[in-house]
Write a sequence for this structure.
């Protein structure tokens, strides 16, 4: 296994290495950016066509009213989970291995949420009427039902997005001051000067910073859990077969953490290569991340089995039929692919030899997320295809290329935002890596030279 | 007497702490230890041992923000429900507490986070204009001690800083 971050690495070198990532990434960076823009082009084209022609071109119809858009919306919301939530949990647990990777994970949260938000708008169709869903007194007599989980969803996601952005920003202030001090001209200098708020690293600033960061981390943990529980309530509080399951909220939270962790592994490998972060995004950190992902994969598998068991042994015949339909009907290949990618494939992560093998991990982490995307689709599509009433059944519906195009493009949108962020802002937290190195070197200094010294 | 500002830069945190301890014990005329500012590239909570405990009030902002957020959300939602009679309730309470709790909870957190940030900015004195005695080295790997005192104290400051291996001493006239 590769080496961990060196305790003797010079702090000036940390600044230099990370600041270099803002200026000269490998050529692969530009290739990724180009591909992302091309993917966005596909989505924009599909979206324009859908607007001009009407929602019918998406093949969304009764009973398939949500389609890929809402499945992908849940996927992106889920993906957003691991960044901020894991960063907050690991911060409270003083897990120092989080320090080199939490910044990009938090950025992933922000951009996933922004991508998810787009799907709500795309799904609405008539975007120019979006203000109809805003809760304010109006002459149209349209007033949101505050008892509906869909309204809770809007509040929860808005809270999560704004809190995550603030958490990301506050954690970045000391690093923005480093950028301000080291970049000497241009728009970047102005940007960092404004955003660093005049930070000088005084004892007063650090003291208040510590408490603030800790407090927001404490708020974010229950918030993140509540956000995906509420998304789960969009389904679980209805009486649709396949959705009305008590274990849905924890199942959603586990699924969200799972896909988020897999995404962190993918982005870890990309950033490590593109920005030459081998010194900071080390293999021992990857190993911990992979083990965490494996543990969450097993929790997800367990909750999946609980869901199946409670339906199978319950007395709701339509829910049972729905489960059988998923496993044997037209969606069966996707259902079993979900089980394979979500529950069988992660067993590989239990083996030491794969825990630090980056090419394999790269492929596996992407496939895990394919499984998690399929999970969301398998929640939505089969229930709409095979609901309570036989005259609403539509087993042959297949999303049109317009839907696929927009879903495809959303990955480009996320990639573009994320990669631009990593080029403009330091994606490795410099001051926290210094803290990590400082405390490790202190621990080494105080370590007895010979066993049994104390 | 006019005040002078001095910024001493140290390579080693322990030396900087030793310098602060000596400044505290030296009983220098025209110098108040509470005016001393330590600048560092990372957080050093252990510096409180020599600087003394200083209060942090951010948590009060958090408490007020969270309570205000929660209360505001509940009363806004409840008053909306109580005033919009055309919404069919199906025999359920006009202001149902369990679903309203969800939005109260979300806004409790939102209020808490927003006002915590406000509290942080106020308590940390941000945004601030950068002080003239600032070295970019502080954001890299050096520890800075900023002191202010009478002109007569400058020589003593310099002696103490030099004794503790200060790498550089910057000086400027105060206001």
């Amino acid at each position: 296994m590769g080496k961990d971050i060196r305790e003797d690495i010079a702090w000036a070198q940390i600044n230099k290495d990370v600041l270099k990532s803002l200026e000269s990434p490998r050529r692969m960076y530009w290739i990724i950016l180009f591909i992302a823009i091309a993917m966005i082009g596909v989505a924009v084209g599909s979206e324009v066509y859908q607007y001009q022609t009407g929602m019918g071109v998406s093949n969304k119809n009764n009973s398939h009213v949500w389609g890929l858009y809402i499945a992908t919306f849940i996927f992106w919301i889920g993906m957003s989970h691991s960044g901020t939530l894991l960063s907050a949990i690991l911060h409270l647990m003083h897990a120092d291995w989080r320090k080199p990777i939490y910044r990009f994970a938090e950025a992933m949260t922000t951009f996933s949420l922004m991508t998810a938000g787009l799907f709500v708008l795309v799904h609405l169709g008539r975007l120019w009427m979006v203000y109809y869903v805003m809760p304010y007194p109006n002459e149209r007599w349209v007033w949101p039902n505050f008892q509906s989980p869909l309204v809770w969803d809007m509040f929860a996601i808005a809270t999560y997005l704004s809190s995550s952005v603030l958490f990301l920003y506050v954690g970045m202030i000391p690093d923005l001051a480093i950028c301000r001090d080291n970049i000497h001209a241009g728009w970047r200098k102005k940007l960092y000067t404004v955003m660093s708020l005049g930070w000088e690293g005084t004892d007063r600033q650090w003291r208040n910073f510590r408490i603030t960061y800790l407090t927001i981390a404490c708020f974010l943990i229950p918030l993140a859990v509540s956000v995906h529980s509420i998304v789960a309530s969009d389904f679980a509080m209805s009486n649709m077969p396949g959705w009305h399951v008590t274990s849905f909220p924890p199942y959603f939270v586990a699924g969200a953490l799972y896909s988020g962790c897999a995404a962190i592994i993918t982005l870890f490998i990309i950033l490590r290569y593109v920005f030459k972060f081998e010194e900071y995004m080390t293999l021992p950190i990857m190993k911990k991340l992979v083990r965490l992902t494996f543990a969450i994969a097993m929790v997800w598998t367990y909750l999946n089995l609980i869901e199946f068991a409670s339906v199978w042994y319950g007395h709701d015949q339509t829910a049972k039929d729905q489960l059988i339909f998923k496993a044997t009907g037209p969606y069966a290949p996707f259902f079993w692919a979900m089980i394979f990618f979500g529950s069988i494939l992660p067993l590989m992560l239990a083996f030491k030899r794969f825990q630090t093998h980056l090419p394999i991990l790269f492929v596996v982490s992407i496939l895990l997320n394919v499984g998690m995307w399929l999970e969301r689709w398998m929640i939505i599509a089969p229930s709409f295809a095979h609901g309570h009433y036989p005259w609403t059944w539509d087993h042959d519906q297949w999303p049109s290329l317009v839907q696929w195009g927009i879903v495809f493009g959303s990955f480009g949108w996320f990639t573009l935002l994320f990669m631009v962020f990593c080029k403009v802002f330091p994606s490795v937290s410099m001051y926290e890596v210094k803290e990590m190195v400082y405390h490790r070197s202190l621990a080494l200094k105080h370590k007895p030279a010979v066993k049994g010294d104390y | 007497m006019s005040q002078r500002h001095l910024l001493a830069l140290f390579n080693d945190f322990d030396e900087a702490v030793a310098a602060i301890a000596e400044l505290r014990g030296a009983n220098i005329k025209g110098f108040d230890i509470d005016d001393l500012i330590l600048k560092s590239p990372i957080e050093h909570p252990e510096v409180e041992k020599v600087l003394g405990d200083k209060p942090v009030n951010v948590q009060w902002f958090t408490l007020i923000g969270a309570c205000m957020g929660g209360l505001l959300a509940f009363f806004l939602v409840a008053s909306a429900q109580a005033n919009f009679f055309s919404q069919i309730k199906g025999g359920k309470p006009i202001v149902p507490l369990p679903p309203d709790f969800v939005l109260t909870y979300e806004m409790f957190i939102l209020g808490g986070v927003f006002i915590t940030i406000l509290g942080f900015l106020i308590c940390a004195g941000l945004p601030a204009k950068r002080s003239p005695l600032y070295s970019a080295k502080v954001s890299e790997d050096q520890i800075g001690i900023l002191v202010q005192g009478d002109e007569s104290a400058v020589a003593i400051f310099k002696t103490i800083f030099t004794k503790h291996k200060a790498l550089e001493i910057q000086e400027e006239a105060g206001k």
